[in-house]
TrEMBL record, chain A:
Transmembrane segments: 6-29, 60-84, 96-115, 135-156, 168-188, 194-219, 226-247, 253-275
GO cellular component, one term: plasma membrane
PANTHER family noted in UniProt: ABC TRANSPORTER PERMEASE PROTEIN, BRANCHED-CHAIN AMINO ACID TRANSPORT SYSTEM PERMEASE PROTEIN LIVH
Organism: Vineibacter terrae
Record's subcellular location: Cell membrane
Similarity field: Belongs to the binding-protein-dependent transport system permease family. LivHM subfamily.
GO BP field: amino acid transport
The name this protein goes by in its record: Branched-chain amino acid ABC transporter permease
Membrane topology: Multi-pass membrane protein
Main location as per UniProt: membrane
From TrEMBL, chain B:
Residue ranges constituting the ABC transporter domain according to the UniProt record: 6-236
The name this protein goes by in its record: ATP-binding cassette domain-containing protein
InterPro entries named among the record's database cross-references: AAA+_ATPase, ABC_AA/LPS_Transport, ABC_transporter-like_ATP-bd, ABC_transporter-like_CS, P-loop_NTPase
Xref: Pfam families: ABC_tran
Entry superkingdom: Bacteria
Protein's UniProt keywords contain Cell division: no
GO cellular component, as recorded: plasma membrane
Automatic annotation (TrEMBL), chain C:
Identification of the protein by name: Branched-chain amino acid ABC transporter permease
Transmembrane intervals: 6-24, 31-55, 61-81, 88-108, 114-131, 173-192, 222-246, 258-283, 303-332
Annotated source species: Vineibacter terrae
Annotated Polar residues bias: 354-366
Disordered as annotated region, ranges: 343-385
Length: 288, 239, 385
């Protein structure tokens, strides 16, 4: 019974971690059809922002929840103005340019902070379930993932901003014809996506520590989750995370963590072979 | 009556809630020339895409000389002997005119014979003079002619032309009319066109599409004075 | 003249290649030769992507997978066989086979552009993760330990065919790599000139039209993808002979580097990516040493590479070869007229009379004007006096 509970918690945790690392990328991909290959480095930057703020005396929660998303969000807007806007409609070029950005960010952060792991200890202590112990902070992250999904849904469903966003997702040209400046929408979208990545990067810093090259650990999984999910930002990310996270955890428990990862990647490849447009490209087309 | 070269039975193409082609029964005899007209959005281009395998029909069947080709891949249908000129010229912008046509000829004949067929097609369509130019730099009408030469080169049994006269100069249109008549001596053709002048010059039998279905079919002289056809084109709802 | 240029280009490439092939081993020191061997094997790798991305339009983010597979296949087979000849053949065959499987999966599934990039990237990541954790006895293949993170430092050097134990000297390995580079380069050229090659290029231009002409585009894409996989495997083999195999061969930075070489050199050319590859390797090596010099600690290779990639995508998307061609054209056009601002008014009218379009300013630069000017620079000045 305890074992089942801990397994369920592990699955929730794996799913939540996929949701978290993918959400920022999903917002940008869903709204703009732009693949941001510097996404992993946005997460990395969020982690560094949080840790630097914390080391300079800022409260840990403030550093993770406010400083990290603000820093990366602003950085995202700058990137959009300087690079992305020149490449709209050129999907491959955008991938290449953001990939150049990712390399440059790794290089820059290495120069500034050095190629060493920095970390902070996870808050909230630990949680005991029968004979097993787990970090309470991991449970907290599951809640954060759920809250972000629900909040995202509420924003898209009930606010004017959400309406514009949904319009742009469905048909960017039409939304522009209705007087919504696509340029502004894209800048805001990229900023929001980057801010979400920064938030998550900050939140994950206590668990994984930060190192300039940590983005590479995230980007593939995030990338795969978003592409598998398809164009619908929230439901796509949630469904794909659920599926891939479960497979990953099951294989990890049954065999080894590495085989868990290999199974995750393999599952995604097979999924894309069956559904080339992602899950929400075929099913739930009208979802958010 | 001999067996038709092309026949569709209840051909239907649905996009979500929109029915672009709705239960079309169409039949074309060997070496027949048929014109397809109808207002924008009547489903003519979608109909062509179902015939050439660019779209997989939702329902119904397409028979080419009695073989079902509905849902086959584009290349397989082309190998049966179906050539199409698409609405927006579909050509290779980065290659020369000659290379474009050569690719079409080389599919059916290797080596020297492909070169000969390429020259013949270039002459037939009258673009021998621009054979060395890059297609990307040509005017719209010339691109249409290049695509036409690509369709003609492998001598397909059935030729589908989607708005071939669009963007052409008067001289080019004259040449096109002659070409269509000459092609029709040996090949079956279906021509989609909006230009009624053009239709008058080439057509014998005309099929009118409206809202994804065949509205009326008949001799060109009758069709062009038909009240329902006129209503459809002027935007009034047909009775 | 326009027909002569490609021939001259081919001759120039051949001469440069042969000069390197025979000149370098005679003069250079061993470490230079080994470095040059690495360059040559990377240049072969660059050609593999230049072929499938530049000509077939297939952007493979995981070309490193075939590179690594080629290297590991060679190392494992050579350790087990004793003789390296069969191992070398396997090092080309196995990546080709793997490319065939992967390609079948992707092209028959009609997976397009971006998704193709994701899948190839994912596959190379799977291999990277997998090979990285193969430390320990249970991962021995026959007598060859896969070695996990450390790779296989005992990767055997090629021996003369049929004479196990008689290893090739570094100069021979270099000659082989450079020879193969020349062979692959002209092999790709020849392949692209065939009917098959032309259909492949046409698919890049407009896949739907190629299908409507009756070609099964999937087969052509699969075939060229397999060729690309085999060539990448070959480069892995040569790399294994100049360094040794390790999981890095599969890594994202390697896949990325290949893309950078191709985009810097120029998509749609073969010589461009080779030059791009060599330039970037020289630059990376130099940055690596510069990094150690006091005061230049801020020069990080990743930072420089990243900025170069962004600059090229944004400002020089056609790459160095196109830039060089434009520059040559500009120089040819402008050399005889160092003071082109003082061109007589009457002449402008003459030039333009041939064509009604374009501005007068433009006309000064266009070729018909050359008829009026003697070829030498001094003559050019005289005509404007």
């Amino acid at each position: 019974m305890d074992y089942a509970a801990i397994l369920a918690l592990q699955i929730c945790s794996a799913v939540a971690s996929l949701v978290l690392i993918s959400l920022g990328l999903a917002v940008i991909f869903g709204m703009m059809r732009v693949i941001n290959l510097a996404h992993g480095e946005f997460l990395m930057l969020g982690g560094y922002a949080a840790i630097t703020a914390y080391n300079n005396g800022v409260n840990l929660w403030l550093a993770m929840l406010i400083v990290a998303p603000l820093t990366v969000g602003l950085f995202g807007i700058v990137v959009e103005r300087l690079i992305i806007r020149h490449l709209y409609g050129r999907l491959i070029d955008t991938m290449l340019a953001t990939w150049g950005l990712s390399l440059a960010m790794i290089g820059f952060v290495t120069v500034v902070f050095g190629n060493t792991v920095s970390g902070i200890s996870a808050p909230l202590g630990s949680l005991t379930i029968g004979a097993y112990r787990t970090g309470a902070y991991e449970v907290f992250l599951v809640l954060v993932a759920a809250v972000l999904l629900v909040a995202g849904w509420a924003v898209l469903r009930f606010t004017r901003l959400g309406l514009i966003a949904r319009g742009t997702m469905q048909n960017a040209a039409m939304a522009a014809a209705l007087g919504v400046s696509p340029s502004l929408v894209y800048a805001v979208t990229f900023g929001v996506g980057a801010a979400l990545s920064g938030l998550v990067g900050g939140l994950l810093a206590p668990l994984s520590g930060v190192v300039p090259t940590i983005g590479a650990a995230y980007i593939a999984k995030a990338f795969i989750t978003v592409i598998s999910g398809g164009a619908a930002i929230l439901s796509g990310t949630a469904i794909a995370s659920g599926l891939l996270g479960t497979i990953n955890t099951a294989m990890t428990f049954a065999f080894t963590p590495v085989l868990g990862e290999v199974a995750l990647l393999a599952a995604a490849v097979i999924l894309l072979r069956i559904l080339p447009q992602g899950i929400t490209g075929r099913f739930f087309q009208r979802s958010l | 009556m001999t067996a038709p070269i092309l026949q569709t039975r209840g051909l239907t193409m649905r996009f979500g809630g929109v029915i672009a082609v709705n239960g079309v029964d169409f039949s074309l005899q060997e070496a027949e020339l048929r014109c397809l007209i109808g207002p924008n959005g009547a489903g003519k281009s979608t109909f062509f895409k179902c015939l050439t395998g660019q779209l997989r029909p939702s329902h119904g069947d397409v028979l080419f000389r009695g073989h079902s080709i509905a849902g086959s891949q584009s290349h397989a249908i082309a190998r049966h002997g179906v050539g199409i000129k698409t609405q927006v010229p579909s050509v290779f912008d980065g290659l020369s005119v000659r290379e474009n046509v050569w690719l079409a000829a080389a599919r059916v004949n290797p080596g020297r014979l492909a070169d000969t067929m390429t020259d013949a097609a270039l002459q037939r369509v009258g673009i021998g003079a621009i054979a060395g130019r890059m297609v990307g730099q040509l005017a719209h009408g010339q691109r249409q002619l290049v695509e036409l030469a690509m369709v003609v080169a492998p001598e397909p049994d059935l030729i589908l032309l989607d708005e071939p006269a669009a963007g052409m100069t008067d001289d080019e249109v004259d040449r096109l009319v002659d070409l269509i008549k000459e092609l029709n001596k040996r090949h079956a053709l279906v021509v989609v066109e909006h230009d009624m002048q053009f239709i008058r010059r080439v057509a014998r039998t005309v099929t009118v599409f409206h809202q994804g279905a065949i509205l009326v079919e008949g001799d060109v002289a009758d069709i062009l004075v038909d009240a329902r056809v006129r209503d459809v084109y002027l935007g009034r709802q047909a009775a | 003249m326009s027909r002569l240029l490609p021939v001259l280009g081919n001759i120039a490439v051949l001469v440069a290649g042969l000069a390197a092939l025979f000149g370098l081993p005679a003069f250079a020191e061993t470490y230079v030769i080994i470095n040059a061997t690495i360059f040559a094997s990377f240049a072969i790798l660059a050609l593999s992507l230049a072929l499938i991305w530049g000509y077939a339009g297939i952007l493979c983010f995981g070309q490193a997978a075939f590179f690594g597979l080629g290297g590991y296949t060679y190392a494992v087979a050579a350790i087990n066989f004793g003789d390296t000849t069969g191992a070398a053949a396997l090092a080309v065959a196995l990546p080709a086979l793997f490319a065939a499987l992967l390609g079948y999966f992707m092209f028959w599934g009609r997976i397009s552009d971006v998704y193709l990039g994701v899948i190839t990237l994912t596959v190379s990541l799977i291999l990277y993760r997998f090979v990285n954790q193969t430390a320990g006895e249970q991962w021995n293949i026959g007598e060859a330990p896969l070695g996990g993170f450390n790779g296989i430092p005992s990767t055997p050097i090629l021996n003369w065919p049929g004479r196990p134990g008689e290893q090739l000297a570094p100069e021979n390995i270099f000659s082989l790599a450079a020879g193969l580079l020349i062979l692959v380069y002209f092999g790709c050229k020849a392949l692209l000139a065939t009917r098959f090659g032309r259909v492949v290029v046409a698919i890049r231009e407009n896949e739907a039209r190629v299908a409507l002409l009756g070609y099964d585009t999937r087969r052509y894409k699969l075939a060229i993808f397999v060729v690309g996989g085999a060539v990448a495997g070959l480069s892995g083999l040569m790399f294994a002979n100049s360094v040794f195999v390790s999981p890095t061969m599969f890594s994202l930075p390697v896949s990325g580097q290949i893309i950078i070489w191709v985009i810097i050199g120029g998509l749609g050319t073969l010589i461009g990516p080779v030059i791009g590859c060599i330039l970037m390797q020289v630059l990376t090596n130099w940055l690596g040493t510069l990094n150690q010099v006091p005061g230049f600690g801020w020069v990080d290779p990743n930072l420089v590479l990243g900025v170069i990639l962004m600059v090229f995508v944004l400002l020089v998307p056609k790459g160095l070869m196109a830039l060089a061609a434009d520059a040559v054209r500009w120089v040819v056009r402008n050399l005889p007229f160092p003071r082109r601002g003082k061109v007589p008014e009457g002449r402008k009218g003459d030039v333009r009379s041939a064509s009604a379009t374009g501005s007068h300013l433009e006309s000064v630069h266009t070729s018909p004007f050359r008829r009026f000017a003697p070829p030498s620079p001094s003559g050019g000045r005289k005509s404007s006096a």
